[in-house]
Write a structure and sequence with these properties.
mainly alpha, about 80% helix
C-alpha cells in the first residue's frame, strides 16, 4: 500500500519536473520514509487514544521525535518490528511516568546519566541513512545535548508539568536504547571480523 502511494507521488513529481536518476532515488527514499513514519504514528495514536492515553502519546512524540532524529537508536528492518517496538517504547515511557514519581534528586541522576550516554555514544545512525562525516556527527551530538538541556532545565523550572515529566522518561529510555544499539553494533562488527578471519 505504501509502496503504491510512493510510486504514485513519485510519478506525479517526475511528470512535473525533470529528475535525474540520483534525484529519483532520493525522492523515492524520502517519500517512503515520510509515509512509513506517518502511517506508524497514526496507527499508534489510534491505539493509545483508544486506551485513554492520546495526550500522553503526543507528549512522548513531542520530546522523542526531535531527540531521536539527532541521536538515533535501535532500528528494525521491518515495518511491523519498528511499529511494535515504537509502541512498546512509548507505552513503557507512559507507564513509568504514571507509576514512578520523580523528585529533584532522581531527575538529576537521570539528567547526568542521559547526558553522559549521549556525549559518549550519540549519534547512532541507521544504515538506511547517508554516511555522515565527523563534523556532521558532532553537530548532531551538540543539538542532542541542547535538546536534553532544554527539557531538564524546563522540568526543574516548572515542577509537576506533565509534559516535562513525561519527557524525562523518554530521554532516559532513549539513552538506554543508545547503549543497547551500540552493543548491537559492536556485536555485529566482532562477528564480521570473526567471519573474515575464518
Amino acid at each position: 500500500m505504501i509502496g503504491f502511494a510512493v510510486d504514485k507521488i513519485h510519478d506525479y513529481f517526475a511528470s512535473q519536473v525533470y529528475l535525474s536518476e540520483n534525484d529519483s532515488i532520493k525522492l523515492k527514499y524520502i517519500l517512503k520514509v515520510i509515509l512509513n513514519e506517518l502511517s506508524k504514528l497514526i496507527i499508534l495514536f489510534f491505539i493509545f487514544f483508544m486506551v485513554n492515553n492520546g495526550i500522553n502519546y503526543i507528549y512522548c512524540l513531542t520530546s522523542l521525535i526531535p531527540l531521536r532524529t539527532y541521536i538515533g537508536g535501535i532500528h528494525y528492518k521491518t515495518y511491523t518490528g519498528c511499529l511494535i517496538f515504537s509502541g512498546v517504547f512509548i507505552y513503557v515511557s507512559i507507564y513509568l511516568s504514571s507509576h514512578l514519581s520523580i523528585n529533584y534528586f532522581t531527575a538529576m541522576i537521570q539528567f547526568i546519566f542521559s547526558l553522559l550516554i549521549i556525549v559518549a555514544l550519540a549519534p547512532i545512525i541507521s544504515k538506511s541513512r547517508p554516511i555522515y562525516n565527523r563534523r556532521k556527527k558532532m553537530y548532531f551530538k551538540l543539538i542532542s545535548i541542547l535538546i536534553v538541556l532544554f527539557h531538564f532545565t524546563a522540568y526543574f523550572s516548572t515542577k509537576n508539568n506533565p509534559y516535562f515529566t513525561q519527557s524525562i522518561w523518554v530521554i532516559t529510555l532513549q539513552s538506554i536504547q543508545l547503549i543497547i544499539a551500540k552493543g548491537g553494533l559492536l556485536y555485529e562488527n566482532s562477528k564480521n571480523i570473526l567471519n573474515k578471519s575464518n
